[in-house]
Specification:
The complex is a heterodimer of chains A (about 270) and B (about 400). With about 270 residues, chain A is mainly α. Chain A is built from 13 helices and no strands. Classes of the chains: A mainly alpha (about 270), B alpha+beta (about 400). Chain B: One of its GO terms (molecular function) is ABC-type putrescine transporter activity.
């Protein structure tokens, strides 16, 4: 490579590779966004752009099954997030702040659900439900139990790392300044650990929302959004799925950008 | 020596003591005993320093007073009230932590107001502003702790504790993280504030100079016990153990055998030379002891030269090392019995400097000498105290 062009290329090689990676990542998302404006032509599985329309956006619930599946997913996601975040936060506090018999064992065991293949977790959970006599009642609640289970580990790990990095003399200082244990927790510990808890909650929701394997095994006749998409893909996905996909993407982007802006504002305040 | 808890058993424990009192306080951890049967009286309104090397139990003692540790046995009373097992948030004690422990999510105003708000005190705003004025941080009220310098954070920590007007303010090595120059000015600042507010301060430090500069009473702690307690000058001039003699400044300790004891003076045979030590400065009843003398009390002169030091004269020294340090000259003098003694001479300009190898004579006024227990280690406390 010679001359100015060669030099320019050498200097910008890393940048160009980075751009290629971004393109690789975002092309599928771009397709989803594009398809959300696609005019459907019958129920065919072939992805083909037939013409621009806003119909999909104006009538996202044209397919009633889609929206009921979405509703199930959102309800399961929110409930699983609340339960897993609450339990996981308490567990993280116990693991970091209290010395008890079996603490190091618990620290290892809490990792197992993260490491175990989902298919193993899902099928063993199904075996458990069936042997406990819930075979006929698989549905919303068994899905919720399953989701809480696999979200818990992530919550514990996230909150624990935040807590472990926190100086416990701050809590001693609060106690020294007349704060009761409850006040110490509410005024000092919780505000300082909160970013970790919030992160854990967001992680839980997205894990729950897009889980397919474990859910599929334990759902009975209940259909979640990922299951609906999977089932529909064989017949031809309604274009509204792309609308939901685009919306999910926008919501995540907004959350990421907002937290980034918040971080920047905070770090600017510190300089 | 009235402050000294020499005979705690004889102290009438039923008369309420208005200061801070510790009685046979012991704190044993799984592998070691940090504090071992400690007795301590801190008079109300005093600036009290607990001085000792790291690991001597001083911080553990402080934490027990704050309620952050529970004593294994013994009792702690404050203004007549037993607080041994009281929760930290139920005792009128506040702490300035070594790491400051300012709440990073609250601004300076809210950090200082924290204790007042917990007790639902009225007029928080005025009180906080008064306190910020005292520590000269009024303009920083709305900043977060991370935006302040180390010295400013230190003052916030002080203000946050002081505003509660505690019976006792505990300072845990509060100046350890500051550089030397800032430390000096903060020492003066804290002393000024203490005089101004008139509260009891208990200050834990390993820096003997800091303890002597700031405190009106210093307790030297070693291995979980108080070695000696008193005014800084008293501790320095009349140490009662080799640990105190070495940890607080430096000392020459020379082996000697007691020849005679009278009401005012003890005569000691020090390596063949008879020297005298005032009986009030004799801290052993044994037949042998360490004769102690501070380097700046030792006068150096040519052989046969008459110096202003009647009484103890030791001939036959040879200068082995000379260090000129500006305000003084520090000599090491090898004595006939092989020991090297330290001599500090002020550079008044009136006396010439001696050179290495010169034969000299040392002398000191008997009233500056002290006699310590021979069974104690002559090197105790020296590592931490030397070169201070």
């Amino acid at each position: 490579m010679n001359g100015a062009a060669g030099r320019w290329l050498r200097e910008h090689l890393v940048l160009m590779l980075g751009l290629l990676v971004l393109v690789y990542t975002f092309v599928p998302i771009a397709v989803v966004v594009l398809m959300s404006f696609n005019a459907p032509r019958g129920r065919n599985a072939v992805y083909q752009f037939n013409g621009f329309t806003l119909d999909n956006w104006l009538n996202p619930c044209a397919d009633a099954d889609l929206c009921s599946a979405l509703g199930v997913s959102i309800r399961v996601g929110l409930l699983a997030t609340v339960v897993a975040t609450a339990l996981g936060t308490l567990a993280a506090f116990a693991l970091v702040r209290h010395d008890f018999a079996g603490r190091s064992a618990s620290n290892v065991l809490i990792f197992l659900p993260m490491a175990a293949p989902e298919i193993v977790m899902g099928s063993s959970l199904l075996a458990l439900f069936v042997s406990a006599g819930f075979a006929g009642q698989l549905g919303f609640w068994t899905i919720l139990i399953a989701h809480v289970m696999f979200c818990l580990s992530f919550v514990v790990v996230t909150v624990r790392s935040r807590l472990a990095g926190m100086d416990d003399t701050l809590e001693q200082a609060a106690m020294d300044l007349y704060a009761t244990p409850l006040q110490t927790f509410l005024r000092v510990t919780l505000p300082l650990v909160f970013p970790g808890i919030l992160g854990a909650a967001l992680l839980s929701f997205s894990l729950s929302f897009d889980d397919f394997i474990v859910t599929n095994l334990n759902s009975g006749s209940t259909v979640t959004f990922p299951m609906f998409v999977y089932g529909a893909a064989q017949r031809g996905v309604p274009m509204q799925v792309n609308v939901i996909g685009t919306l999910m993407f926008v919501v995540s982007i907004v959350i990421v950008v907002a937290s980034e802006l918040n971080n920047r504002r905070r770090s600017r305040a510190l300089t | 020596m009235s402050l000294l808890a020499e005979a705690p058993d004889q102290v009438a424990d039923d008369t309420p003591y208005d200061g801070l009192r510790l009685r046979s306080v012991t704190k044993a951890f799984a592998s070691f005993t940090a504090v071992d049967g400690l007795d301590l009286d801190v008079p109300r309104g005093s600036f009290f320093a607990l001085l000792g090397p790291s690991g001597c139990g001083k911080t553990t003692t402080l934490r027990m007073v704050a309620g952050l540790e529970t004593p294994t046995s013994g009792s702690i009373t404050l203004a007549g009230q037993d607080i041994t097992y009281a929760k930290p948030y139920r005792r009128p004690v506040n702490t300035v932590f070594q790491s400051y422990a300012l709440f990073p999510h609250l601004d300076i105003f809210e950090n200082v107001a924290f204790g007042l708000r917990r007790r639902r005190s009225a007029d928080v705003k005025t009180q906080v502003h008064e306190m910020l004025e005292l520590v000269e941080l009024t303009s920083q009220a709305r900043k977060k702790p991370a935006q302040l310098s180390g010295g400013q954070q230190q003052r916030v920590a002080l203000a946050r504790a002081l505003i509660n007007k505690p019976e006792v303010l505990l300072l845990d090595e509060p100046l350890g993280a500051l550089d030397l120059k800032l430390r000096r000015s903060m020492q003066i600042e804290i002393k000024r504030i203490q005089t101004e507010v008139g509260l009891t301060f208990v200050h834990v430090t390993h820096d003997q100079e800091e303890a002597m500069t700031m405190a009106d009473t210093v307790a030297v702690m070693n291995k979980g016990l108080i070695e000696q307690m008193g005014a800084p000058a008293e501790l320095y001039e009349n140490p009662r153990s080799t640990f105190v003699a070495n940890f607080l400044g430096q000392s020459n300790l020379i082996e000697g055998a007691v020849l005679s004891r009278s009401a005012d003076v003890t005569t000691v045979d020090m390596q063949g030379i008879s020297v005298s030590v005032p009986t009030g400065r004799t801290h052993t009843d044994d037949a042998a002891g360490w004769v102690g003398i501070r380097p700046e009390k030792v006068l150096i002169g040519e052989e046969g030269e008459a110096l202003d030091a009647p009484g103890n004269t030791i001939p036959g020294g040879v200068v082995s090392d000379v260090s000129f340090v500006g305000v003084s000259t520090q000599y090491l003098v090898r004595m006939p019995w092989g020991q090297e003694l330290q001599v500090f001479e002020q550079n008044t300009g009136r006396r010439r400097r001696f050179a290495p190898g010169e034969r000299v004579e040392l002398s000191w006024r008997p009233e500056y000498a002290f006699l310590l227990d021979r069974s104690q280690d002559a090197g105790a406390g020296a590592v931490a105290g030397v070169l201070a």
